[in-house]
Specification:
mainly alpha; elongated; 171 residues; 8 helices; 84% helix; single chain
Length: 171
């Protein structure tokens, strides 16, 4: 495969990753509204979840109530999730470097991979401290697991590009 085709593949994977980061960030802004909608959906008369997974329904209700009460009494706490959203957006912006020049910005892809790996201890250490159910910790961990896959593929393709470009320079 030629370098141009490989770079196109890297860019498509990075665009997917950037889009996922942006979506994750932007959806942290309306958190109270989203939880309200989720709570209504899972507790609707047609939802099978209350009978199938009552612990999940209870957890969603507890988080919804906690967030509503906290935001009502202490609205400034929402500022923390605003910064969380902002951080996701800023990290997504960092990946524009590898979009332009994947070889020169390989370090950004590796930085992203390290961040994905660090999601695991973060969730497993702070989840129990904060009273987060194990299932929810596993959902959080899945973001790191699924996030590292496109980045790992990108890294391997970028290393192939480096090899091809070095070979081309020698000939």
């Amino acid at each position: 495969m030629d370098v141009r085709a490989l770079k196109k593949r890297v860019r498509l994977l990075l665009l997917f990753f950037i889009t996922a980061l942006l979506a994750s960030g932007i959806t942290a802004f309306p958190l109270e509204w989203e939880l309200s909608v989720l709570n209504r959906l899972v507790n609707s008369p047609w939802s099978p979840l209350p009978g199938l997974w009552p612990d999940l329904i209870a957890w969603i209700g507890r988080v919804h109530t906690g967030l509503q009460d906290t935001y009502r009494q202490y609205p400034f706490i929402a500022y923390g999730t605003d910064w969380l959203a902002f951080a996701h957006i800023v990290i997504a912006v960092a990946f524009w470097g590898p979009l332009k020049d994947p070889v020169r910005n390989l370090w950004v892809v590796e930085f992203g991979m390290i961040a994905c790996v660090l999601v695991v201890p973060m969730a497993l250490i702070f989840g129990p401290i904060r009273g987060i159910p194990l299932l929810w910790q596993l959902i959080d961990i899945s973001f790191g697991v699924f996030g590292i896959i496109p980045l790992w593929i990108c890294r391997n393709i970028i290393l192939q590009i480096v090899e091809l470009e070095q070979t081309a320079c020698l000939t």
